[in-house]
Every structure is written in structure tokens, then in C-alpha cells.
Amino acid sequence: MALSRRSGWIIALAAVLLFAVAVTAENRTRYLALRSTYSADLGSFHNQAVNLAYGRDITYLFMAAWFKPGEFDGPSVFRSAHFSPLRTLLLPQLYRVYPHIETLMLLQGLLIGVGAFGLYGLAIERAQSPGLGLVLAASYLLHPAIFHTACNDLREITLGIGPALVALWLYTSGRWRWFACAAILALSARSEHVLLIAAIPLLAARVAPANSGSRVRWWLPPALALGWAGLAELYYRHYYGVSWPLLVYAVGHSGGGLLGTLGQRLVPFCKLMLLPAALAIGTPETFALALPFVALAKRVHALEFPPHHLQHLAPAMVLVFWGFALTSLRIWEARVRLRRWLLALLAVAAVLGFAHFAAMTWRKYPRDVLRFDRLARWADALPVESTVVVDSSLCARFSGYLRVLDYENLPMGAAHPTLQQVEAALRTVVASADLVVVDDAAPLAALARGSGLFEPPQSFKRYRIFVRKASAARLERPDEALQRALLWQQLPPRARRGASLSIEP
After folding, report:
1. Is 201 buried (19+), middle (13-18) or exposed (0-12) by CB count in 10 A?
2. For residue range 378-423, what is the model confidence (pLDDT) as tens digits?
3. Do residues 77 and 91 lie in contact, with contact meaning Cβ atoms separated by under 8 Å?
4. In DSSP terms, which residues pair with 468 in a beta bridge?
5. From CA 233, how far away is CA 215, in angstroms rounded?
6. Cα–Cα distance between 345 and 135 in angstroms, integer?
């Protein structure tokens, strides 16, 4: 009995949901076990969303900007070194329903997983084969690079992988309004997807619109990409006073240097992408468009767990899987007798690729997570409006409060604070804190001990946990005290934009 399209869609939906739940569970386990790949970044993203969900627009977690020394994210939750409206505007709305870090992780799993819909939809419209569509979708969902990317905390650029693949399929289907929605969603993940969206007419040139009565709107993807590039330029001009850093970064590389880098990375990239990369070469224009992203990525390396820097290859992954799908369709249409062999080859390759991921993950998966349950006594027990002071390694685990400070990276407003100013800020931070969790060797531990504000410290591994005494007086206006001690009145005007500060310059 042949599989119907409706049954195929139901199976694809179930697979995407299972994928999202699986990667959310893995990310959550690593988060609970203090093994997040980027604890400071994950903590910053979560803390910003929590503050917005509770009606606040500031954060005390400043992240250094990648494009200019001395620049940073914050204090406004809308001021980010990466232009990502999907994270800064959409995600906090979901937090109003469930303001917990699992919301962030599940959203990433779903947005990466929906890329399977793009491959399945392309196959059932072009090959009229739900079976081929499901095999292509499984090749995507079970691919080690996709799984590794989804198990990498939350990285904004990866949120655009699934919407970009769906946008490619919708463009070939002639569903222009839905295509525009998917393309904007991909662009809003991060502005690196501009080049990918602009190139969609070329990427879809081998596939005529499924709706024969629909006129190809070749101008729509470049128009959306150009408009988004303009928004990115305005955003960085407004908040940082610089041109779109991504463009500056790309132009700043010499052609010879990029070719040399690409020559060193091409083989590792193909090893990373396995069979999809081999078949994508059969669609040269698609594979060629992936190469600039490979050359400009921060690093291209063999799979590891937890994965570092794999997120920079997100647009290249989209292009490889699109070329993989197009080549598979051509083989399907041209070699009728080989269809069963093609399905078998793709299915076996998908299973073997996932087996490689599963084996590596099993060896390094945190199995001691139950030992970290003790942290929940302090990490999840205080009121959300509490002030918490931690070091960088604990940022993610304690980021669910409105005022979270990383004492190793104090959000000082002065560009070059004196030692006396930093010491005064630390004293105010301790005086305002409801909870301090730091390494026992940290100077802040001695400061907390000597303040007389906290109960006798408790120990967990190398950390000392200081809980404020119920009888200790609390600051009436903690935001004002903190911002004054951190010299936020010295923040430059651009850094203050979008933030409702408690003090004036």
C-alpha cells in the first residue's frame, strides 16, 4: 500500500517534534550539569528574554562585541552585537507564556527541525513520492552536523536554517506570501542569511514553479534581502555608530587569502557534511554558493561534542542540503530502475551518520546530572526579582533572575575604570545581592564573608554559596544603586539607547 501525502506529512511532523524534544532534552541536561558550550552567551540570551517577559528592558550581563574593541551588548536588551529580531523580539513573547530556559531551547529545536518540511515538500511536489520525501527529511534530521548544531545551546544564526529551507521550497511552489514570511523569519535570525535569500532565484533555477499559473517573481528574494541589509545598516548605525559589520568583515578579506583558507577547509567541510556534500556537488551553483560561507567561517573542524563554532556554517548547511535534494530528485527522475537503490542508499547513509553522532554523544553525555540537583536549592528557589552574583561558568544556570551579574565581567559604564572604582562597584554588588555563588578562591568570596550580610557559606564542588540573611537590610532601589556604582552615568549616548535606566548621565 502506497504512502499517502497526508500520512507522509503526519510522519514528518512527528519526526520534527521528536527531533525538537530530543535536542531540547540534551541541551537542558548539559545546562543543568554546568556543561553548556557557551555558558555566558546562553545566560545572556535567557536573562534578556526573562527581563522583557517581566516588563524590563535592561540587563546587567554585557557581552563583548565581536566587531569593535570596547563595544558590547546591553544595557538595553535590544542592543546586540548581532542583529537578530527573532531572538530579541519574538522569543520574549513566548517567555510570557513559559518564562524558562527550556522555551529557548525548544524554539531552536523546532526552527532547525522544520527544515525537514522544505525537503519533504519539494519531493512530494516534484517526484510525487512521499517515500523519497521522508528519506530526504530523515537524511536532514539524522545528520550529525544538524544534530550537533541543534545541541549547541542557542546560537542565533542557526535559527534560520529551517526557515531558509522552507523558503526555498515555497519559492519553487509559487506560494509567494508564505515564501516572504519564511524568508523574513530566516533573515530575522541573523543577517548572515541575506546572501542566501538573495540567491534563491539562482538556487531554484533548475526547478520551475509547481504552480504553472504563477509568474516567477524572481525579484522578490533580492528585494527582501536588500531591504533587510538596509535595516541591518540602520540598526548598527543607531546603536553602535558603525556600518553593518558583516559587510566590513567580508570585504576586509583578500581574495587570495580566502582562496587559501578555502583550500584548507574544503576537505574537512565535505567530511563534516558526508553524503549530502557529495551529492550537492551535482548542483554546482548551489555548492559554489556555500564556499564563501566556508571560507569566512571562524573555524571548520571535525565533529566534536560539545560543538564549537559549527554555527558559522549554518548558511552553508542550508545550501548543501538544498543541492543534495535537487541532485537526488534528478537521479530519481532520470533513473527509474535505480529508485529503490537510491532510497536504500540515502536511508543507510542517514542511519550511519546518526550512529556516528550517537556514539560520540554517548561517550561525552553528562551522566552525573543528578549530582547537580543540589544547585536547584539556590538556582531556582529565589523570587525572580532577586539580585544574583555569579562567575562566568555559572551565568547560564543562574540567569533566570532579573538582576544577574557576572563579577568576572562587571558591566562598568566607564571605558577605563580605576581600581578604586571597580572595588567600590564590587562592594555595592555584594551589598545588593540576595545570592552570591563564586569560586572559593575568588576575592569576592572573602568580600561576601566579611560583609556580615550572608548566612555561613555552603559548598558545592569548588563553589561557595552565600545566601542573604533574612534579617539583613535590603537596598530600596537596587537598580539605582547598582547603576550608580557601575558608573552607568558615563555610558556613551549610543549605549544608553533603548534602556530605561534609573539614573541620568
Report:
1. middle
2. 788 889 999 999 988 899 999 999 999 999 899 999 989 999 999 9
3. no
4. 454
5. 32
6. 10
